[in-house]
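Subject: Predicted fold for Alanine--glyoxylate aminotransferase, 390 residues

User T.R. writes:
Posting the sequence so we have a shared reference for the thread.
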Amino acid sequence: MSITSFLPPVRTLMGPGPSDVHPRISSAMARPTIGHLDPLFVGMMDEVKSLLQYAFQTKNELTIPVSAPGSAGMETCFMNLVEAGDKVVVCQNGVFGGRMKENVERLGATAIMVEDEWGKAVDCNKVEEALKANPDTKILAFVHAETSTGAVSDAKTLCEIARKHDCLTIVDAVTSLGGSELRVDDWGIDAIYSGTQKCLSCTPGISPVSFSKKATDVITSRKTKVNSWFLDMNLVMGYWGANTKRAYHHTAPVNALYALHESLVMLQDEGLENSWARHAKNHQALRAGLEAMGLSFIVDEADRLAQLNSVTIPDGVDEAAVRGQLLNEFNLEIGAGLGALAGKVWRIGLMGHSSRAENIILCLSALEAVLGDAVKQGVAVAAAQEILGA
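User M.O. replies:
I've generated the structure tokens; pasting them so everyone works from the same file.
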């Protein structure tokens, strides 16, 4: 057998991630590889840190890209801040709160669960009660934008509650960074992680993280070693830290960081608030089209993410067959439901470079064609265009 080059088709990615990669970012990855300790590369690293501080809206010195995908960013936050015997209040309103719980328990700490219905925002009153009942809690952990449901929670209020109870916060912003309002310093977030493959229009494989001064002090004064050598910020800071001679820690993914740099330059050029507004407007257009054809959302409007839309499946429709037909006939990817929502919803992403008018029109017209008599025909595109043209 002779294996030849892999040549993937051109897909339109409108699932829960990855999103479409902007051509500028693909081009950036093809630039010449230089050494990860090359002075020019080190200079670019400093620019990446500055650009990430802008994206996160923070002045945190320890704001860096972890050389691995968003799940590693999650582990970076938990590994560095949680020690055996600690108590962590974990909010779960979807799949990814459950992953937070896994991290806590694997580190020998206790997870106090605050659970809400999938598709609902985290209940701030329940969090307050949990912290009152557990005054020795060290950390409050929650998902800002729950990718499995499309619900956004009130990060600002949750952080205020945590501070009132003298807790650190760990926040999952994998789907919100660049697409939803997110203000790390103003909201008082202590540790936050994201991914490059969603609203940053970049390739998968890098996880931006940021730690407040308070969180950094906890890391440097730990009683025990961080359980992961690779993710130990005490070591990584020697490579990414400011005002220091860069110490070798690992071989950074040079070309992937070119891509991240380019994506962050594009975010800077568009303007962060303009990016938030673009995602919001495109969501309204998609929503208008979906509702015109008779489809509905599982998340209440006030708690609904613009960039991740969980849409109910009409009665009698084979959801997997629809996704397969969209992929095979239209080169269009949308996502399936996860966990408790498996088989009940489609997840339609409008993230980063995927959040474009032409993608919305393609998605609506393709869904009409595939769903046939299960939806109202000939109305979706016009409804969306009314919003897009406004």
